[in-house]
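Subject: for your reference before the review

Hello V.,

The reviewers asked for a structural picture of the protein, and I figured it would be easier to keep everything in one thread rather than splitting it across files. Below is the amino acid sequence we used in the manuscript, unchanged from the supplementary table.
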Amino acid sequence: MTIKKKVAKKKGTKKKTGKKAKSIKQQLIKASFGFLALIIIVAAAGLAVRHLIRQHPSKIPAKPPVAEVQKKPIKIPTYEIYPREKAVPSPRPLPKSVPVPKPKPLPRAVPVPVPEPVPIKALPEISIIIDDIGYDRELCEKLIKLDTSLTFSILPRSPFQTSLSRLAVDRGSEIMLHLPMEPKEYPRVNPGPGALLTRMSPDELVGQLELNLEDLPYIKGVNNHMGSKMTASSTQMNQVFSVLKKRGLYFIDSKTDPDSTGRSSARLFQVPFGERDVFLDHVQTKEFVRNQINLLIRIAEKHGSAIGIAHPHEVTYRVLRETLPDLKKRVKIVPASRLVKRPA
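And here is what came back from the structure prediction:
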């Protein structure tokens, strides 16, 4: 190859290399402009979305609060299905006592006989049972701290059953198992977790009852929650009372049905037994609750004792807080176990 050809070849190679470098540089510039354009488009889109939110905030779905997502509120169950009872008129005020005239003094010569001291009549006794303890923690705690003479009946498998039962026992109050039983309205009305149902076999019924009793180790007795259908079944009530007899527990019939066989089962198994005389708060007004308390007192004055059942309502707490000091002057408030006895 001649010198001229070699020089020409070198010049062509340099020319091609220069063109290639120039092509790469142009591609890099184009890519830079493309990337910059993409950034501008994204920024413009962000500004457009922000403007859309400001103009139409209702179209953007709201994010639920953290508290709602993390924890659902506790649903308070139906407290009771009250039986139909005749309305009780408001108590009439007692007539004012007629003043007895003082006897004329006897002559000094005649000795005045000294009368024997009159024995003080014992106050009638009442028991006030607060049912359905275990759900509204704040209100239940206020009721437990109200007075140690009240009795508290706790629902099985309720969210605060353990802490509330311990609080009541530590303060010296008596506690019971508020045993859910099938009402006539079932399944439209559900008595709640741990309920005894009429379709259960004897083994299922006794097994469920044993589980409920083991959940609350400090109880002294049992009363029924709802149960208008179950308490009318003598066979199944006998199964319930056989367990209560074995454990040494008393039973108080809430009398949600007039055909309850609780007394006959208690007589058969010789289980200490009592019955509810008055529901105190199935109408939630202060005036009604006060009238029901007065009715409970009149029954106690007539028979020597009476049992009232109330529920964790705010109005119930307020009336009890206001009336307990005066109530204790007229009656003696005792635990439910004091007013039960074995039926003859």
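For the response letter, the relevant points are probably these. Residues 248 and 290 are 35 Å apart (CA to CA). The chain has a mean pLDDT of 84.

Happy to draft the paragraph if you're swamped.

O.
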